[in-house]
Structures are given as C-alpha cells and as structure tokens.
Amino acid sequence: MLQCQDNGVNMKVIDATGKVCGRLASTTAKMLLAGEDISIINAEKAVISGSPDSIKDLYKIRLDRGDKYKGPFISRLPDRMLKRMVRGMLPYKKATGRNALRKLRVFIGTPKDLVNIVDIGVKDVSKLTSEHITLHDLSHKLGRKTV
Predict the structure, then answer these.
(1) CATH homologous superfamily of domain 2-141?
(2) Count of other CB atoms within 10 angstroms of residue 105
(3) Angle, CA of 59, 42 and 90, to the nearest 5°
(4) Global pTM value
(5) How many C-beta neighbours within 10 Å does residue 95 have?
(6) What is the pLDDT of residues 1-29, one digit of tens each?
C-alpha cells in the first residue's frame, strides 16, 4: 500500500496485481470501516481462485438473470467487479457502509498521481495451488468490449 496525499487527505494505495479478490476485498472493507481512504490500482490483474470455466459460468448466470430494464445490473468491467466485491463485504444498506464505500476508488491500470503503493499482506497468486483467472480474462470471456 502507498501513502498518497490527495487534496490534504491521507490515502492508502493498494496494488491488486496477483492478489486474490476475496481476501483483498475483505481486508479493504475492514480498512474502509476503520475510516481510511483507499485506492486500488491494477484491478484487472487481481485473480479469482478456482476453475476458470466454472467462474465464467457463475458470472454468466448472474449477467443473464433478470431483464435489461429492471436488473440486476452486473458490470463486465474489472474495476467495477472488484468494487462490487468490496461492497459485498460492507453493510452498504446502512449509513456506515455507504460512507465507507464512498472512500473507495478502484482503477484499471495505474494513474500517474498515485505512486506510493503499500503491501497489505494479502495472499498472492504465487502461493495458490489451484487454478485461477484474472479479472481481465474474466471480463473478456463475459463479452467486454475493448476500447
């Protein structure tokens, strides 16, 4: 994690490269509830452990559920997928969870103004013994359009 001064606010910057999404989301949610401002960079390089085909099938089921007018609306973008995972770890229907979620920013790639990255000790891909898929690969398998 990095400490970054952004408009007088002390912000922690987390690099999601090679981190397991669920563990990253739960650690981030705890830090948000503690009142910290957090930015996550390289969201597309975070991984979900498990069989890539089964993970794709689960997300495909979520995307196809409901209708296009009423939802639920699930994004195919990696940064929004990760932010939604963090939201799932927060009590977002209460004021504390909503306020905590407002303090989170998630980016694809690395913005130039965020430079001081801090390591939070979340399990890395190198320690995984099972199959895994990155959020970038998952979003492309779900039909994300490249720009």
Answers:
(1) Ribosomal protein L13 (3.90.1180.10)
(2) 17
(3) 60
(4) 0.86
(5) 9
(6) 545 555 546 789 999 999 999 999 999 99
